[in-house]
Write a structure and sequence with these properties.
- This protein has 161 residues and is α/β, with parallel strands linked by helices.
- It is built from 4 helices and 6 strands.
- Helix 1 packs across helix 4.
- Strands 3-2-1-4-5-6 form a 6-stranded mixed β-sheet.
- It starts with 11 loop residues before the first strand and ends in a 14-residue tail after the last strand.
- Strand 2, helix 2 and strand 3 form a beta-alpha-beta unit.
Length: 161
């Protein structure tokens, strides 16, 4: 169902960008172009499915200022998080919802449906992100999405709410 009976959107797609200010590929100028293309086209795809869209930036950095500078350069984002590298609270949550490799850059696509969060896809590395964008940023079928084991907590986590 694309919308609720009162016409409101039924959930949202969240694209989480993971990058690092000290990672060469995370600072590749092509990556910024790819993120801008995602920023322009993915909200249209979400709307076509009756979904809202959010883009979240997470910088893997111990230095908060460096992390924020990196996200400012790669943004804009609806939400940002940085500090504590892979051990931050947002990273802990993301690894619980969508376990995967610790590498930058990467994008993780999630579907939030009320209090549930579903993992849709992960693209790791500039080349993989480039291939996904070149293919038109296909959205996986949500009926096959992997539901988070901690879905009852999703509505309480500010970076996905």
């Amino acid at each position: 169902m694309a919308t609720t009976p009162d016409g409101k959107r039924d959930g949202r797609i969240a694209l989480v960008y993971l990058g690092s200010p000290t990672c060469g590929p995370s600072n590749d100028p092509e990556l910024l172009d790819l993120l801008n293309r995602i920023r322009k086209e993915l909200p249209k795809k979400a709307r076509a499915q009756g979904l809202a869209f959010r883009m979240v930036g997470v910088a893997i950095s111990r230095n908060v200022r460096m992390g924020l500078d990196h996200l400012r350069k790669m943004g804009p984002f609806h939400e940002v998080a940085t500090g504590a590298r892979w051990y931050s609270l947002p990273m802990h949550y993301l690894q619980t919802v969508a376990p995967g490799i610790r590498a930058t850059p990467q994008v993780v696509l999630l579907h939030q449906d009320g209090m549930r969060v579903h993992f849709l896809l992960r693209q790791v590395g500039v080349q993989a992100i480039r291939r996904w964008v070149a293919a038109g940023m296909p959205l996986p079928d949500r009926k096959y999405a992997q539901e988070s084991l901690i879905s009852d907590c999703a509505g309480k986590v500010p970076w996905l709410c």
